[in-house]
């Protein structure tokens, strides 16, 4: 009887241990991702996060970071086909995360970032399509959480890179990036693994608007 009573307790302990392992492994990978400066640095970290996502199919954050890591990797690669390939992979993980948490503002912000990554591969050919898709995703992200600072950073980035003749440019981007600055200043991540990227890039872009 004592053995039977112990079984549920042991299962709970094993479950908690597994959860702790996933969170610790993901936290370590996020730190490595922040330190990565080249494609050679970032690729193995992206692979590591993908393995975590595959091991935790019911958790949205590993899939989120797998999408984020591959989106960031695309900016570090040179070949157009390679960049699109890693963005295809990023989209697969992002779609998975959206199925798990369809009302999460951070996922729509990341979708906009992924669209921007597609755009910069070939701005002349892709500008109209992906700028529009990024804007739609950011409006959804803002609707879900108007205090999400990444929304304003990415909106400002969109505006900064839009030609002045179409209503963009540094002057148009500056007030949006000023809002991003304030949002980052007041932003507190809800937990240790919560998305918290973009502040330094946003400030660097704002400095170019003066």
TrEMBL record:
SUPFAM superfamilies: TPR-like. Residues 1-18 form the signal peptide. InterPro entries: TPR-like_helical_dom_sf. Keywords: Signal. It comes from the Bacteria. This is Tetratricopeptide repeat protein. It comes from Rufibacter glacialis.
């Amino acid at each position: 009887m004592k053995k039977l009573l112990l079984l549920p307790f042991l299962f709970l302990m094993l479950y908690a241990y597994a959860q702790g392992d996933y969170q610790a492994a993901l936290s370590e990978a996020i730190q490595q991702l922040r330190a990565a400066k080249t494609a050679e640095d970032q690729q193995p970290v992206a692979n590591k996060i993908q393995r975590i996502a595959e091991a935790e199919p019911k958790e949205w954050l590993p899939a989120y970071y797998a999408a984020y890591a591959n989106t960031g990797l695309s900016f570090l690669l040179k070949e157009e086909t390679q960049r699109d390939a890693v963005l295809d992979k990023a989209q697969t993980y992002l779609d998975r995360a959206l199925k798990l948490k369809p009302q999460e503002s951070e996922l729509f912000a990341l979708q906009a970032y992924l669209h921007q990554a597609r755009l910069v591969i070939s701005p002349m050919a892709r500008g109209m399509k992906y700028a529009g898709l990024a804007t739609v995703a950011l409006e959804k992200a803002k609707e879900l959480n108007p205090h999400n600072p990444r929304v304003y950073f990415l909106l400002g980035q969109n505006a900064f890179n839009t030609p002045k003749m179409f209503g963009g440019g540094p002057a148009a981007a500056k007030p949006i990036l000023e809002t991003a600055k304030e949002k980052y200043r007041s932003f507190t991540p809800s937990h240790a693994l919560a998305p918290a990227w973009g502040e330094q890039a946003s400030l660097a872009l704002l400095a170019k608007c003066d």
